[in-house]
Amino acid sequence: MSRLFETRPDDDGLPGRERRIAVLVVVVGTLMAVIDTTMINIALPSIARDLEISAARAVWVVSLFQIVCAATLLLFASLSELVSRRRLYIAGLVVFTLASLGAALANGLEMLLMCRALQGLGAAATLSIGPSIYRLIFPTRLLGAAMGLSALVVAAGYASGPTLGGVILSFADWPWLFALNVPVGLLALALAVRALPAEPRRRGGFDITGALLSAAMLACFFLAMDGAGHQAPWWEVLGLMLASLVAGWLFLRRQRRASHPLLPLSLFDEPRFSLAIVVSGLAFVGQGLAFVALSFLYQQEMGFSPLQTAWLFTPWPLTIMFAAPLAGRLADRFNPALLSTLGLVLLLSGLVALALVPDGAGIVNILWRTALCGLGFGFFQAPNNREMMSSVPKARSNNASGMMSTTRTIGQSLGVALVGVFLALGAGSVQASLWLGCGACALAVAVSLRRIPLAPAAKPTLAERASPGPD
């Protein structure tokens, strides 16, 4: 870990001591947003009981946060060029912290949902530019290690969220889950004001039309996925999906004509970036499918309790926390596309092993299969993120960061929704959805194999052909 903060005379980025504080800011901001997502899930029964609402309405406490966050990731990534990443990140922390205080004080569902929507906006502002801030504060030679640290933080958040929520709920009421964010957010805000570097802002306008079309496209998509996962009427899901496709078509047309596009389509002229985005989306579809399908498999078909099920999932994020930093460091020395592909092969092997798990399998027999999935995902994610961030000019790292976060969220949501569709089909649905996850991962391996020859030394990238960006 100390290697991340070593400084050489020819390094870009921040000096070691300043880099350490800036990294702490990004880590705390990311952890708050990720832990909040997973921690609130286990509090839904308590929220429904205390607010005297149905379980279906309580689910919106989680869904609204996720939809607002996902729909505005691209918007904030582009906005950061206009206001600077420092200002946007600080604003995101302020909104998220104040909204957390409001949620803790909420005495009705309407106020709670309003605060959750504001939390989603604050989380989107920080998560959309988190990877690009790593590129801003770390020297290029340590970019892979930085992406490994980023993957470790996200995995730690997902792993600790349910446990932390359960511990707090064992001696306090659910509002304290939100109140916990207030002192942590204030600490992160104080450090951010001190440590995040200033940078030049882009002159020019903002693509408001593109922002509205992007938000409409993503909001309709996630509402459709949420509806499919909860077995909403088919015509409602189809209508939302058609609205998303129309908004997406209009958005792409707008991006070709806009003077300051929300998503510069020139990013996709670089094959390394385009292939990394496709591979990322497919891998997260597979992970999203597995997470939900395995919950039903363990509890409904294998008879494990909810607590046992939580423990059965633990090796997945824990092995990511081990593998991602190691894979990130290796990606700074070896072909990241090759490392990422090897990780996908391990992930596919683990998913196939889980799909073939016998009905009477014991806990140990399941744990090694889950750990294999986490090991593969850890070795895939950090090198793949390095490919995305290093294959575009620094001036476009904000857009690449927003696209990375949006792709991850879309992939996971699509995977969750597909499990809902399969469950509606009846018998054998859980195993079928697991095999579909294997198929998505196998397709990711096939796409990833195509990019191995496109090693950075073999072909000049957009970053190498373009002049240095403003930061």
UniProtKB/TrEMBL annotation:
Major facilitator superfamily (MFS) profile domain residues:
22-456
Q: Which segments of the protein form a coiled coil according to its record? A: none
Principal localization?
membrane
Bilayer topology reads: Multi-pass membrane protein
Report the locations given in the UniProt record.
Answer: Cell membrane
Q: Where is the signal peptide?
A: none
Q: Does the keyword RNA-binding apply?
A: no
* NCBIfam families xrefs: efflux_EmrB (TIGR00711)
Name of the molecule in the record: MFS transporter, DHA2 family, multidrug resistance protein
Task: Tell me which species this is from.
Answer: Franzmannia pantelleriensis
